[in-house]
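My current task is to audit a protein record that another person submitted. I have pasted the whole thing underneath without changing anything:
***
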Amino acid sequence: MIKAENISKSYAKALVLDGIDFTAGAGKSTVIVGRNGAGKSTFLSILAGFLQPDGGSVATNGKIAFCPQNDNLFEELTVKDNLLFWAKASGGSFDLDNLNLSGLFEVDKYIHKKICHLSGGMKKCVAILCALTVDAKILVLDEPFSGLDIFYKNILLKAFKELRSQGNCIIYTSHNIDEITGLDNTIYTLSNGKLEYMDMQDNMLECLLDRLDAKRIGL
């Protein structure tokens, strides 16, 4: 479980996060939706412990694996070496077979290629895999579907379902309605610094547009 209380964050004079409370539990997937610049990346970075809030606190009962929107891969290293590095950096160990990652994103086909020789979508796949090598029950991913083709998006959705069935807590951001509704997610909207729960509805896209049709702030 992860719990955030009264999180606030400002950049210069712009209030990005305004007293946000948030809780996510084991075996659940939560998606946070907001307009560009609403503060989604800022909020996820705070949840993952990569950014300090101006106020408030985050508590968790387990390790967090974080996949930022912009990948943190080493371009001159191979896919395998990147996976090894991030697994060891988290205090764990890497074994492609034991982690059951060899089939995910077909990584076994390009495991020995350098990152600089991969397409943008393949780099995204590797960045997600690096997060999955961490022995963590809480997964925080910023726009994990961005750059993936329809084939890999479907693979990732299936992987999320499997991870959730194993008791993992998944938190991610998205702009695509299929990625938002495809996992029976708990949905929150982030707008004007406020995070609000949203009920699943038949006309979800229209409701989201109405909810987010407000003057945005933040970075």
Remarks:
- Residues 35 and 212 are 7 Å apart (CA to CA).
- The chain has six helices and nine strands.
- The helical segments are 40-48, 79-89, 120-132, 150-165, 177-181, 204-212.
- Strands lie at 2-11, 14-24, 29-33, 55-60, 64-67, 138-141, 169-173, 186-191, 194-198.
